[in-house]
């Protein structure tokens, strides 16, 4: 029998991918399933971006590139950071990898030693604690409940820091809650971080472009320039540009860190697809006008989903600032009995019964480290969302 790595023993498979797979299985077995599990835009990649990729293929730009990205793409990324975030980076401060996920992983592998701690505010994106574990570190979960709109407060940050803390991972807007930090809230966290020079900041800004109601987006190195030298500002084209399958993520930070990450990528995946890199150059340098109408559609869907969920007996759904997720509490249904006869003891039971009874797939809150709640992705058609809300309301009303 195969012997597996001890480090992997501690790691959980991705619950979001598991739910998406289960929903797809039910669908292919002929069930009318509505999947609200996947964190993927339903929009298509814009045509100018696709054309740039086709051009790259025709022109034979199909060879290896530098492992951590083409110089032209790094230049485009520097342009993006300056234009949108007021942050000045040189191409030598930029790392490109096959998606945002490996960017984070490369940063952790490049910096963590056994016993090093990484603060992960909960609810968290499922991959953060697992990637920390795979890189040999210790995730330190900082719970951020509905009372603070699922956001880390300066006091909670201060309490989580120890002499072994190497990183704090910030994610605004957040997957899974949609919560985004205001400039003032980031200021409060920055003041704490200024007092702890051993702590580096990994900010995952993947959902930057998806903010609503005129929310003003800020990233921490912009709020506090004194943190620039220990911040890795991470982003990618997957969500904003509807390019999840192209696999391009990037980050910028201090040269020494970027160089170490370059070493990791050069001995593992090597460069992301050259074709995708040319597409990403077009995404960042090309017209940005399609972002606004898409943002408006997401905002309308968010409003519809929040209103619909708040009509359901036993659910309570806050209105988040961004991303394409909401994170309703299902505390009011715990202890009730589902039509199948099963007593709903936790959020995983709720999600399982909802999928089996009404064929609506959501991801249970325990996967994100905060229960009882669940994540709904509204990156899906308005018609599907309307139907899903009818089913969720019917399911909740049927609980006894
Ligand atoms: N960071 C967050 C918060 C995400 O939600 C995701 C995708 O789900 C990623 C990073 C990874 O994105 P990519 O698909 O580019 O690896």
Please tag this protein with its features.
40% helix; binds pyridoxal-5'-phosphate; Aminotransferase; AspAT/PAT-like; alpha/beta; Aspartate Aminotransferase, domain 1; 400 residues; three-stranded antiparallel beta sheet; Aspartate Aminotransferase, domain 2; seven-stranded mixed beta sheet; 14 helices; aminotransferase
CATH class of the largest domain: Alpha Beta
Radius of gyration: 21 Å
Ligand types: pyridoxal-5'-phosphate
CATH topology of the largest domain: Aspartate Aminotransferase, domain 2
Structural class: alpha/beta
Largest sheet: 7 strands, mixed
Number of domains: 2
Distance between the termini: 47 Å
Q: Let me know the CATH homologous superfamily of the largest domain.
A: Type I PLP-dependent aspartate aminotransferase-like (Major domain)
Shape: globular
User: Taking strands numbered 1, 2, ... along the chain, how are they ordered across the largest sheet?
Assistant: 2-8-7-6-5-3-4
- Share in β-strands: 5-15%
CATH architecture of the largest domain: 3-Layer(aba) Sandwich
What do the pLDDT scores average to? Answer: 96
């Amino acid at each position: 029998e195969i012997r597996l790595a001890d480090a992997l023993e501690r790691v959980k498979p991705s619950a979001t991918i598991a739910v998406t797979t289960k929903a797809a299985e039910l669908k292919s077995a002929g069930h009318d399933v509505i999947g609200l599990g996947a964190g993927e835009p339903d929009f298509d990649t814009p045509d100018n971006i696709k054309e740039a990729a086709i051009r790259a293929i025709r022109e034979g730009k199909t060879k290896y590139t530098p492992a951590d990205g083409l110089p032209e793409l790094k230049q485009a990324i520097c342009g993006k950071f300056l234009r949108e975030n007021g942050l000045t980076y040189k191409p030598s401060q930029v790392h490109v990898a096959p998606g945002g996920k490996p960017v984070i992983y490369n940063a952790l592998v490049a910096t963590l030693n056994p016993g090093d701690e990484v603060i992960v505010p909960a609810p968290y994106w499922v991959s953060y604690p697992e990637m920390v574990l795979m890189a040999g570190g210790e995730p330190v979960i900082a719970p951020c409940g509905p009372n603070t709109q699922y956001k880390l407060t300066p006091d909670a940050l201060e309490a989580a820091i120890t002499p072994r803390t190497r990183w704090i991972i910030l994610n605004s807007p957040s997957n899974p809650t949609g919560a985004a930090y205001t400039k003032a809230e980031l200021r409060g966290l920055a003041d704490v971080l200024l007092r702890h020079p051993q702590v580096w900041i990994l900010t995952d800004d993947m959902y930057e472009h998806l903010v609503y109601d005129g929310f003003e987006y800020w990233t921490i190195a912009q709020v506090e320039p004194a943190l620039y030298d220990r911040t890795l500002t991470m982003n990618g084209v997957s969500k904003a540009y509807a390019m999840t399958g192209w696999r391009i993520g990037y980050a910028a930070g201090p040269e020494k860190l970027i160089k170490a990450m370059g070493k990791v990528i050069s001995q593992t995946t090597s460069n992301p697809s050259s074709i995708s890199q040319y597409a990403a150059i077009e995404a960042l340098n090309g017209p940005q006008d399609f972002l606004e109408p898409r943002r408006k559609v997401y905002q309308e869907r968010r409003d519809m989903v929040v209103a619909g969920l708040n009509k359901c007996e036993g659910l309570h759904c806050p209105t988040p600032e961004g991303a394409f997720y909401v994170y309703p509490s299902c505390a009011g249904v715990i202890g009730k009995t589902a039509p199948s006869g099963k007593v709903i003891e936790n959020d995983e039971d709720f999600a399982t019964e909802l999928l089996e009874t009404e064929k609506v797939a959501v991801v249970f809150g325990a996967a994100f480290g905060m229960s009882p709640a669940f994540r709904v992705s509204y990156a899906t058609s308005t018609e599907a969302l309307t139907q899903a809300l009818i089913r969720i309301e019917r399911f909740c009303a049927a609980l006894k």
